[in-house]
UniProtKB/TrEMBL annotation, chain A:
<dbReference type="InterPro" id="IPR051393">
    <property type="entry name" value="ABC_transporter_permease"/>
</dbReference>
<feature type="domain" description="ABC transmembrane type-1">
    <location>
        <begin position="61"/>
        <end position="308"/>
    </location>
</feature>
<keyword id="KW-0812">Transmembrane</keyword>
<keyword id="KW-0472">Membrane</keyword>
<dbReference type="Pfam" id="PF00528">
    <property type="entry name" value="BPD_transp_1"/>
</dbReference>
<dbReference type="InterPro" id="IPR035906">
    <property type="entry name" value="MetI-like_sf"/>
</dbReference>
<feature type="transmembrane region" description="Helical">
    <location>
        <begin position="180"/>
        <end position="206"/>
    </location>
</feature>
<feature type="transmembrane region" description="Helical">
    <location>
        <begin position="291"/>
        <end position="312"/>
    </location>
</feature>
<comment type="similarity">
    <text>Belongs to the binding-protein-dependent transport system permease family.</text>
</comment>
UniProtKB/TrEMBL annotation, chain B:
<feature type="transmembrane region" description="Helical">
    <location>
        <begin position="195"/>
        <end position="216"/>
    </location>
</feature>
<feature type="transmembrane region" description="Helical">
    <location>
        <begin position="260"/>
        <end position="277"/>
    </location>
</feature>
<feature type="transmembrane region" description="Helical">
    <location>
        <begin position="21"/>
        <end position="39"/>
    </location>
</feature>
<keyword id="KW-0813">Transport</keyword>
<keyword id="KW-1003">Cell membrane</keyword>
<dbReference type="Pfam" id="PF00528">
    <property type="entry name" value="BPD_transp_1"/>
</dbReference>
<keyword id="KW-0472">Membrane</keyword>
<comment type="similarity">
    <text>Belongs to the binding-protein-dependent transport system permease family.</text>
</comment>
<keyword id="KW-0812">Transmembrane</keyword>
Length: 335, 291
């Protein structure tokens, strides 16, 4: 078992790291002299160059960053809402609702992407539904316009004179674009497929909450909203932490939907680091750069997990204090 | 006395009424949400029985105007689809069987056997679970290439057998079971392997079902590993085949009934698995409460 684990995980990662600092172009075996050591050249090519490689990484980072910023809060809030609603309906239909919300998580990302390509096609179900409401829907998957640009455009703010690149080959105007309309569909898709799984985590936690605290709050005359906001959510903090961490790790790895649905189009606004890494190495045979992008992605995932942890811990010290000031010294070790 | 009585009478019904109203709103919201979650699947199923023209003309309807099974006959007769199904079945069954054996053996060893370096192995296991899958694409390809199993079933299957999460689940399960029965077997002279096979494994039913469900679903739905492990059409699996069918024909923008039929067929096994183990899947965590 140690052998298999080592063989398929530790050794491979070491090999990939070697490739990321080599000039291997896919010919021969990189382990046996077919590649030369080039230091951090691949990393500086994708991070500091002024060519397409850097610009693509910049776009991929921007796209995925907006995706993470949208999906993680939305899926967490929706999952919590579903869990609270399903938990409330103790008697009838609970199993049905639980299954209905969980079902999208069971099916493959490829099948769901196909379904969404159909639903959000130019003449698809969503646009037909919007037409009934008198709204003309966009051509979702072909629309590269960023939603922040669109919002600014509504106030008459257009692209300023093209300023120079500020970071990773993109100008600041390009950085603030927001997710493109096409990316928004992938955001909806992600929330649709993951909220069920996270709902189950929240449900399990809700069922293990002690009922006395809630009862005490009812006796004290707390409204349902107060009970949710002041008691349930703070007590769910460990689960909240798990869900947000898993969400951060999962959303930075957006690949299947891009491979199946958009291949990074339109206008490279659904390009992601994971897909870029695949494209660079497997299709363009720039293995060194592809591996470098993979390791950068790894670093980003680690860092954003740590940031998420830090953000949640920060609030951890204030919430219990507000909730029960009398027991302040005890909460530090308890939570 | 009368005052408190009146008060209680006042409060009771009002509180009840508010709660009943709240429940009605909650139920309405739940039903709307459930519709939103299930409608995409219903509409996919319906559209797979439409003609291309019918799908474009009326994408919303749940009943095809002119029902047609041409999408299915096209898929099953005039494409590699049956081959993809066969490959996916082979890979999924092998991976699931292999993972059950591997995860339970390794989990048992970690929980019960005292061997040097056990702590290190366990730490390594947890570390491995933390490595994101997408980061492993290039490493996996390099290993598959080095061992000369690119473009073979071995390359499709072997790397998927490594299942740190499964080992973790089994290890935790065996740790939570008191070792009394196994000790009795040991006193009767049974060796570690015999104890594992005849005593420990039959007791691990619930955990094994979890592993089976996770492995089946995971390997049936796997995409990225199959992309990097082979490029031969004969080794195409369902996910990769359907993904490339979709990606390739995107420019034409039509053929939705065909693509959706493929999506429907590839969802059937996992949907069945879900229906069979529904209770267990959606209530694994509150098993203690449901008894």
């Amino acid at each position: 078992m140690v052998v298999i684990l080592g063989l398929f995980l530790v050794v491979p990662i070491a090999m990939a790291f070697w490739v990321s600092v080599s000039d291997w172009r896919g010919v021969g075996n990189p382990m046996t002299g077919a590649a030369r050591f080039v230091g951090a050249a691949n990393y500086s090519d994708v991070l500091l160059g002024d060519g397409l490689a850097t610009k693509d990484l910049g776009r991929a980072m921007r796209n995925n960053l907006y995706y993470v910023l949208a999906v993680v809060p939305l899926q967490t809030i929706l999952a919590l809402t579903l869990a609270v609603l399903v938990h409330r309906r103790v008697v009838a239909g609970r199993g049905f609702f639980r299954s209905a919300f969980y079902f999208p998580s069971v099916t493959s990302s490829v099948a769901i992407t196909v379904v969404f390509l159909f639903l959000f096609s130019a003449t698809g179900a969503v646009n037909r539904l919007l037409a009934v409401l008198g709204v003309e829907g966009p051509n979702w998957f072909a629309d590269p316009r960023g939603v922040v640009h669109l919002a600014l455009g509504a106030f008459g703010i257009r692209a300023p004179y093209e300023s120079g690149p500020v970071l990773l080959g993109l100008s600041w105007w390009n950085w603030i674009s927001g997710p493109s309309v096409a990316m928004c569909v992938l955001i909806v898709l992600a929330v649709f497929t993951t909220s069920g799984t996270f709902m189950l985590l929240f449900l399990a936690a809700l069922q293990h909450l002690p009922g006395e605290v809630e009862e005490a709050a009812v006796v004290d005359g707390a409204t349902p909203w107060q009970r949710l906001h002041r008691i349930t959510v703070p007590m769910l903090r460990p689960t909240l932490f798990t869900v947000i961490t898993l969400g951060l790790i999962g959303t930075w790895q957006l690949f299947d939907q891009v491979y199946t649905g958009t291949q990074g189009t339109p206008g490279k606004t659904t390009l992601t680091p994971a897909y870029l890494s695949y494209q660079t190495s497997f299709q363009q045979q720039e293995w060194g750069q592809g591996a470098a992008i993979a390791f950068l992605l790894f670093a980003i995932i680690v860092v954003s997990t740590l940031v998420g942890r830090w953000l949640l811990r920060e609030r951890d010290t204030t919430a219990p204090h507000r909730l029960r000031p009398a027991r302040r010294p005890g909460t530090g070790s308890g939570s | 006395m009368t005052a408190t009585h009146a008060l209680r009478r006042d409060r009771g019904p009002a509180w009840l009424r508010r709660s009943r109203f709240g429940s009605a709103v909650a139920l309405a919201v739940l039903i709307l949400l459930a519709l939103a979650y299930l409608y995409p699947f219903a509409i996919s199923l319906a559209t797979s029985f439409k003609t291309d023209a019918g799908a474009a003309a009326d994408p919303l309807s749940l009943i095809p105007a002119t029902p047609s099974t041409s999408a299915y006959t096209e898929l099953l007769r005039n494409s590699d689809f049956p081959l993809w199904v066969r490959n996916s079945v082979i890979v999924t069954l092998t991976v699931t069987t292999g993972r059950v054996l591997f995860a339970s053996l390794a989990g048992y060893a970690l929980a019960r056997l005292r061997f040097p370096g056990r702590g290190v192995v366990f730490a390594a296991l947890v570390a491995v679970m933390a490595v994101p899958g997408v980061v492993l694409l290039i490493p996996r390809f390099l290993v598959i290439n080095t061992f000369g199993i690119y473009n073979s079933f071995a390359g499709l299957i072997l790397p998927l057998l490594v299942d740190a999460a499964g080992v973790f689940i089994m290890r935790n399960y065996f740790t939570s079971v008191p070792p009394g029965v196994e000790e009795a077997a040991r006193i009767d002279g049974a060796g570690p392997l015999r104890i594992f096979w005849s005593v420990a494994l039959p007791m691990a039913g619930p955990a094994l079902i979890t592993i089976i469900v996770l492995s089946f679903q995971g390997s049936w739905n796997e995409l990225s590993h199959f992309i990097v492990a082979s490029d031969r059409p004969e080794l195409q699996t369902l996910t990769k085949g359907v993904a490339q069918l979709t990606a390739g024909a995107l420019s034409q923008g039509t053929q939705y009934p065909l693509k959706l039929a493929a999506a429907v067929i590839m969802s059937i096994p996992v949907a069945l698995l879900f229906l069979v183990f529904q209770r267990r899947i959606t209530s694994t965590h509150d098993g203690a409460i449901r008894g």
